[in-house]
Amino acid sequence: MDVKDKVIIMTGGANGIGRALAELFAKEGAKFVAIADLDMAGAETVAAGIGTKAKAYKLDVTSTSDVQGMVDDIIDTYGKIDLYFSNAGIMFTDAPDWNVYSQSDAQWQKIWQVNVHAHVIASRIVLPAMIERGDGAFIVTASAAGLLSQIGDTAYSVTKHAALGFAETVAITHGDSGIYAAALCPQAVESNMTKGAEGSSASVDGIMKADELARRTLAQMREGRFMIRPHETVEGYFQLKANNYERWIGGMRKMRRGQIDALGSPI
Ligand SMILES: NC(=O)c1ccc[n+]([C@@H]2O[C@H](COP(=O)([O-])OP(=O)(O)OC[C@H]3O[C@@H](n4cnc5c(N)ncnc54)[C@H](O)[C@@H]3O)[C@@H](O)[C@H]2O)c1
Fold first, then answer.
1. Do the domain assignments include residue 45?
2. What domain count does the chain have?
3. Could you read off the pLDDT of 208-249 as tens digits, one per residue?
4. Among 8, 93, 143, 258, which has the minimal tally of Cβ within 10 Å of its Cβ?
């Protein structure tokens, strides 16, 4: 999978990871990059920085009509979508009492809609034409929290496991129809989401610059990898989890205790 001459949609493209990926894809020869975000001012800034081959779209990824409207507009001009990068995401912590049941039903519904159901909505809109053509790509930004777990962020960890499961199912179900599916699973990356989280357990291995993450992500897309892991450490943690789940849970509990001792809270 390369981005040269490709028509690309990047959700959550106004900031952080989505912005860095969109800018890199444009630099590497994409034909068009849609910067799709709730944050229209940010999306317009990114699109203006890229120039004529980018356009900002104000949309909510949880709205079928918003996503359909953008896709129709792009197809009117370019005839197809080559890559849908379903990257927008949100996070809530378990604060203030740090239990797994701390968050309200409204928060669970919200994070489910953005971090999971938005991928389902997008797939319904873009996959049929890709499957008919026998060519197209669908990439979900999950997280290392979807492979491992993020201490103190129950709903985030759970929805990122689900997002990874969805991407995996796209690869299994539609790979034979020419669809390249992938899941991006980073650890901490510099963005609005990690502002102020420098001492948290998610940042134990440091916080990667978004530009570096984008370069590593594109390199792994070019290798055709399903599992895109820009942080090398994630590979080892994942193997440890797979090889000895009990020991891995013990290690995570130890890390949680260490965080509470050092910070007074798990993150
Ligand atoms: N930063 C990290 O350490 C990290 C690590 C692993 C995974 N991720 C994931 O990467 C993705 C991008 O996050 P980021 O770190 O760049 O954070 P960010 O907050 O900087 O960017 C997220 C973007 O998504 C947009 N967005 C949120 N809800 C939306 C909605 N309903 N409709 C449209 N746009 C919406 C926001 O406006 C924002 O521009 C997320 O899915 C996040 O969970 C981040």
1. yes
2. 1
3. 999 999 999 999 999 999 999 999 999 999 999 999 999 999
4. 258
